[in-house]
Amino acid sequence: MTFLVQDAIISEEKLTQYLLIPLPKDDKSKFLEQAGYSLKNWHQLEQDLRSQVLTKSAELVETNRFGKKYRIRACLKGVNGVELNVLTIWMVTTEATKFVTLVPDKGADHE
After folding, report:
1. How far apart are CA 23 and CA 30, in angstroms?
2. CA-to-CA distance for 94 and 84, rounded, in angstroms?
């Protein structure tokens, strides 16, 4: 089993300018809104990604010129108690581990 580092880089911009704002294509804000996440509490989403997602086993997806790409499937319990099945993507390089994205996990089967 592979676990990624708890101090992975989760950029504020990724959360506040991508995941938590409505987008014309690949919008994730409405999905995250179901669990009570919004721009007002983006810090909570970051904290929950660390405590609820990064504590799960990571699966290597591919190795490319940017590094090693991992996915972590998890159940994210939101601020309002609603649970979302999420699939997250992380990039691991020699310098750092970085959060790439989060999508609804259509094929979820989590404990």
Report:
1. 10
2. 31
Local confidence pLDDT in tens for the 111 residues of the chain:
899 999 999 999 999 999 999 999 989 999 999 999 999 999 999 999 999 999 999 999 999 999 999 999 999 999 999 999 999 999 999 999 999 999 999 875 654
Cβ-contact 19, 45 below 8 angstroms? yes
Q: Residue 9 is encoded by which pair of tokens?
A: 């880089």
Q: What does R_g of the chain's alpha carbons equal in angstroms?
A: 13
Nearest to 97 by CA among 36, 7, 2, 37: 7
CA distance 33 to 79: 10
The amino acid occupying position 34 is: Q
The C-alpha angle with vertex 103 and arms to 86 and 21, in degrees rounded to 5, equals: 115
* Measured distance CA(101)–CA(79) in Å, rounded: 20
The angle formed by the CA atoms of residues 30, 10 and 63, to the nearest 5 degrees, is 100
pTM score:
0.93
